[in-house]
Structures are given as structure tokens and as C-alpha cells.
What does this fold into?
Amino acid sequence: MAARSFLGAGDIYINRMVDGVKVGHVGPIYADSLSITPSVNTVQSTSKGRHDYGQVLESVNIAQPSEFAMALKEVTGDILVMAFLGTSAAFSEASGTLTDFSVTIPKIGTWIPIGKKNLAQLVTVETAATGGTTLVEGTDYKLNRDLGWIMALEGGGIDANDAVFITGAHAAATGTLVKGSTRTEVRAEIVFDGINQADGTQCTATIWEAVLAPDSEFDFLADEFGTVNLTGTLKTPIGKDAPYEVLVQEPVQ
It folds into this structure.
């Protein structure tokens, strides 16, 4: 006997559209919620008669765009693109070695980018490319190895506008570069691949085209794990007769 109530579990697949072209389904993606709310606008004719003032003479519901919301708990580069209404590109930096790489220090006590991230532990900084003095980390300067920054310290052996010469290796790095607030919306096909945990009934919801935007900030320093919350409306694209479909089928044996 089929269950009479629904307690869902499932995965989400997202196929973003970039400049009108679908880039391919990404997933499965973990989420805390995914909801669709059909919407109508009720238009009523009410009486102003002497004895039935305020009574409804006629009422009709006018269809409105269905509302959609989802809270994604899996935060990857692809998800952050949507959270920040951005565009993305692959980031890649090859490994290599800096040899007597010159950096001018314009001011004491401020960070200066070296130009390469992920510096090795063994880095030497000298006052000249050849025959210079080897400077002491923690006394003359300090490094942010992850960012590839150097700072000359007060009282050290570096003066403002001096050049220093850096030798050391830097590791390779790959990732996703997100340029935020470069778009006004997220358009995507979304598929929910789920089951009713009460009886194992399979439930697949296909949203042909959602037009979304984030409805809350993304906090990099939240005390709890972050989520990306997206809300919007559902569109019926050309070639479809509904904005979404929900298929409920018996468990496959």
C-alpha cells in the first residue's frame, strides 16, 4: 500500500544557462530545502447592495508565475557563482621558482604582492641580486606565503623605496575564479532526483527554467556551515506546456 504522507530525500542537479546556453548538469548537490509554490491572484466582485454589502458575487483565480526556493548546503565554485550573481573561469597557476626576483618596497609596514602565491617555506630575501645582505624573516620582513605577500618591518634592514631580491619556489594552484555581481540573475534547469522515505516511491521534479537570485548574504565568517539561498520564479520555455513536471512512480524492484 502506498504511503499517504511524504517525507522526501534526494539530490539536486543544476544545469545553468550562460548567455542562453546550458553548460551541463552539475551534481548531485546536497540541499536543505527545495520548494515550489503555485501562485494565483484572486479577483473578486463584491456587492455594494443595501442588504448584502461585501458579499462575493463572483470570484476567479488568475494564474501567476510559480515561486521557487532552494537552500544549497554544498558550497563549491559553481554554487558560489550563483550566490554572487557572478561569472566564473578556471584558475591555474603553474609551479616554479623565483630567482633574485626584484620587489620594490614603497612603504614600511604594509603588504606588497610578490606576484606568485603558495610560496615554499625556504625563501631567501636579499638586499641585492649578487653580493647583497641576506635579510632575516621576522626581523627585517615577514611573509604571507599563501597570498604571496611581503612586508618590511619597522626597525629592520629595509628602508622605504628599497628593492629586495627574492629567491624561492612556489607551488602550483588550481581552482575557480568568481567575478561577483556581474549578472542580474541565475537561469537554470533544475532536477530533483528523490524518493519518499515512507515507502520508497520515486519522485522526480524537473524545473525547465528557473529565474533566480540570492535572497540573503553569504557570510564567510558564520558560526555555522554556510548555505546558498536562491529564490525566484519558474518559466515555461518554448516547446514546453508547463513550467515544471513532477513524476511519481512505484519503486523499481
About this structure: Residues 179 and 199 are 44 Å apart (CA to CA).
